[in-house]
User: What shape does this take?
Amino acid sequence: MQIICINNYCFALTNMGIWKGPCFLVSIGQRPSCSGGYMAYSNLLYQQVILEHNKNPRNFREMEDSTHNCHGYNPLCGDDYEIYLKVGGANVIQDLSFTGAGCAISMASTSLMTSYLKGKKVDESRVVFEEFHKMVLGEFEPENNEHHLGKLTLFLGVREFPSRIKCASLSWHTMIGALDKNEVLSTE
Assistant: This one.
């Protein structure tokens, strides 16, 4: 999806109406290349979602009655999370939460993961994990393939920053570790 930017403001037609916001290049002190032209909508939305979920993470709490949990950490950057799942009848993830700390990308990815997978079957969650992981590695193009990622395609841009791939995928690997009954998982 693309947007048009005019006079340092960007406009996009979304499923919720017309979105208007300041050009993100202007907001970080760079000369806008988008004035009067087009720019990728996903880059702006990605930045907004990352900041929102970092500031107000969803499902950030310990779960006393979890059926599965796993501790995941990245010793190189310090991202450190505990993922909790409550899997019920018909192998449905009834609840999903997390505790811990990390960079904005890892926090947002974890927050979105917990929201997105709640209510999904375990097998479907594994498929979403595979698609997400391949997408951030650059091995899967959601625009050209059928997928189960929904709004998670916002993390498509992470592949442009190889050092951030582990940030975006740590909680996903930890969630799989919890389902597989692993106690601890490390990216190294």
